[in-house]
Design a protein that fits this description.
mainly beta; eight-stranded antiparallel β-sheet; disordered N terminus
């Protein structure tokens, strides 16, 4: 059934001048789609994480890791008539040199692991390599050089793209990951970031409308 514009519930949640993300907004643009926006006010962030929950006392689910200059995100196809809670977090970290599939690995490193939060470039993953794997997969491997990461992010730069975008997250302490190769990624460059989370923004909440 087509949605009736007259039935669209428009709701805006707004936080200004408090917490870590002043100007963070959530807008229900139609009954089951919400648009989030925030200012690009942290030049040191490697990107941001968008999270949500329907239980204010429960765990948050990560919707997306976003590149550093992106300031909007749409959460589509919400459950109707449900309250959603949103927050965003910056993430930071040291990144490896870029590699291509079957290209040479990034530089190796020796010595003990170092704290990522100290800002030391030597905490970046070493010996990062991308290799073809069966069933059109790409297999990544690396040496963990940081002692306090919250995880690892594989980032891709497709041919003709302006910058790298996060595409795969791995747990702390891991040294390999696999990813399905998609059309348009032939000849892409990859890099790996050891990352840690920044503080969460204030939480915004809104209620989705009726669908249909």
């Amino acid at each position: 059934m087509p949605r009736k514009l007259a039935a669209v519930l428009l709701a805006v949640a707004f936080v200004s001048g408090c917490g870590d993300e002043p100007g963070f907004t959530a807008t229900l643009t139609d009954p089951v789609n919400v648009d989030l926006s925030w200012p690009d006010d942290d030049p040191g962030a490697a990107g941001r994480i968008v999270e949500y929950t329907t239980d204010p006392h429960g765990e948050y689910t990560i919707l997306q890791f976003l590149p550093p200059r992106q300031t909007t995100y749409r959460h589509p196809d919400l459950m109707p008539e449900t309250r959603f809670y949103y927050r965003i977090r910056p993430f930071y970290g040291a990144v490896s040199d870029a590699v291509t599939v079957s290209g040479p690995a990034s530089a190796a490193a020796s010595g003990p692991a170092v704290p990522l939060r100290a800002g030391d470039r030597s905490a970046a993953p070493a010996s990062f390599k991308a290799e073809p794997a069966p069933e059109e997969m790409v297999r990544f491997s690396w040496a963990d050089r940081s002692s306090d990461e919250d995880g690892f992010l594989v980032e891709i730069k497709k041919p003709g793209s302006e910058g790298f975008v996060p595409i795969e997250v791995s747990d702390p302490g891991t040294t390999s990951a696999g990813l399905a190769s998609m059309p348009g990624e032939e000849g892409a460059s990859y890099r790996l970031r050891a990352f840690y989370y920044g503080p969460a923004s204030p939480v915004l909440d809104l209620v989705s409308g009726k669908d249909g």
